[in-house]
Amino acid sequence: MLRGLVNKIIPFSSVDGPGNRTAIFLQGCNFNCLYCHNPETINLCNNCGTCTKVCPTQCLTMENGIVHWDKEKCIECDNCLKACKNCSCPRTTYMTVEEVIKAIENTRPFISGITLSGGECMLQKEFVIELFEEVKKLGLTAFIDSNGSIPFYGDDRLMKAIDAVMLDVKSYDKEEHKMLTGQDNEIVFKNMEYLASINKLYEIRTVIVPDILNNEKNVDSISKRLSELNPSIKYKLIKYRPIGVRTEIIKSSMPSEDMMEKLKSIAIKNGCKDVIVV
Amino acid sequence: MDDILKIIKDTSLTYEQKVFTLAKAAENSIKPLNIDEETQKYRDNGIICDLFEGNAPYRPRYIVPDYEVFLKNGSKFLDLEPPKNIWEAINSLLILYKHVPSITSFPVYLGNIDTLLDRFVEDEEEAYQAIKLFLLHIDRTITDSFCHANIGPEDTKAGRLILKASRELNVSIPNITLKYSEKTPDDLALDSINTTLITAKPSFANHEMFAGELGDDYAIASCYNGLPIGGGNFTLVRLNMGRLAPMAKDTEDFINNLLPDAVKKMAGYMDERIKFLMEESGYFESSFLVKEGLISVDRFTSMFGMVGLADAVNHLLGAKDQKDRFGYSKEANDLGVRIIEKLEEEVKKHHNPYCKFSDGKFLLHAQVGIDTDKGIAPGCRIPIGEEPEIWDHIRHSALFHKFFPTGIGDIFRFDSTVKRNPQYVLDIMKGAMKVGMRYISFYTSDSDVVRITGYLVKRSDMEKLERGEQVLNGAAVLGLGAVKTQHVLDRKERKDA
Known about the structure:
heterodimer, A: about 280 residues, alpha/beta, TIM Barrel, Alpha-Beta Plaits, nine-stranded mixed beta sheet, 11 strands, globular, B: about 500 residues, seven-stranded mixed beta sheet, 16 strands, about 15% strand
């Protein structure tokens, strides 16, 4: 049976799309962004066992070369995440679609829908499709939070299952994007155009990172492109926050309100009608 | 007489508050009610409490006038013609409000003010000016937080203007409820949520639930009390389960012996209060509200209140660990439901000839507590400091809401960032109604107006009072008491989880 590798489920989220949503974070990402604030979602566990040695409640154990996690015993102290040298997390669970649906049963009356996030949830595309097909049957909306590296185009079944996508456009410049994430951004822009053309682009997000990125150029170019596609699509400018990040690989600081307002005014000048700063 | 002199010399009371306090002292200097010894014992140890209604009831506790009758006919007694425009309408209503008594001497119900005023809205700008002055006048003259206005369930121009003015005024009076029906448009519900995230009102009443039990012409008055329009409630006495439980040998003794006895004694005490009001006080023979058809004695009931279910359950089970306590363990929650079912059964056995609206029955009410309650949770609520996650909390509340047609409700405090996503709160509110909640309130951590237990008080007013300064709102002192004894400012802040 098809299973997804789930890092965690946040039953009520006010910041992952419209209304109240259950946000489901899948494990594994093909980007390695310098500013990643949840680097423990990047790689799959390699069963090295380092984490089992720092767990104060012995909820992590090695059995036949595999790290096991006892959810009941876990106190979420995050010692395992701090010790992991592989940007991974031992506290993940392989879940079937049925199991995920059962997990949201209690909160279903209170939510507008589900948002799949990550990691990069599109790396588990088959699971995304099957889960969302069931989610839709419950009358809930199905949203994706994606880095845009996997094509949304050319897959009718996928696009039928998804209501809308919230897309990270991290950098306009190809080289800068590569420096930041380790990957090219060609597909990201193709996705952006495609999703806007079929009215399934809920928002575009750019993280503003002083001293690391050419923020002004990024916002200027991305907002121009967005307003050409559809100026009503939300453009969210996110302040870099040095929380949960690997400070050994990034030296930056939170941008000032002035800087954010200046960037916002650039996007508005370029025609974007719905620009927000968070 | 020392007490009287103390009231006269108290500089923290406004002149008006002094007069009310002196009137209460005068009322309490006589003891015309017949109270038997066993009932008095229950009263003395706080198991039965009449919530300061006074020794000689000379007006019903809550009066819920039919303001439509007033708008249609004007008033002979007040010498007012039916109003012809919005200025006349608000002026007439403001005059009438000064003549609608209650236990606090202030009106606890102001009408479905959106539908009352909507017919007079012609020029929206002018109507907004009138409505804002109307609400300002209410806050400054009906200086008591138990004063309650209703809006909805339909969308009206006046309703929107009331919400807009409430956001701008940001005051604690009046309390406002949106009667929320499945037919209420999302747009109005969202406007209401945007308002409550700024100024802690309106709250949301489950219209289908209230209308199903009390009829379409019901009102939400005082804290969150469902009552018939054109009538009201004679008396509200409460049974403190948290105090009663320690007297029981065990759970079975509590349910089978103590509870039925306390219900019987309390019902008898309520009878005695109603009898005095109806047969001695002369209220219904003399009030112009009765003579002019704004209230009718046939549309009155009485509210049988209770508090401290959580404390009773935890005591009976000896539950110490959170996982075993009320709000968490199935055993504790099931026992809570069993106790309330038994309470309902016992209360239904009683007949009072004057409660004609409810066929001689008293109706259950989950009382929100008084400022001096210590270690007693309001109604069927989970105590502050023990609140579970919001989805479990709402489902838990809903277990009890169906038993309390004259009012029960829960309050949730949000992190102020939810203002960016009011749809989030709308989803939660709708879900709460879907799972059977009767009444729900929200506010944010940065709000000056805060919901204490059911009523609203400004944080800044409580701060003034604490410095010994006078405050216009007489309920601020109750709010401050509840902040100190029940830690209402420490209600769990709801964030993404």
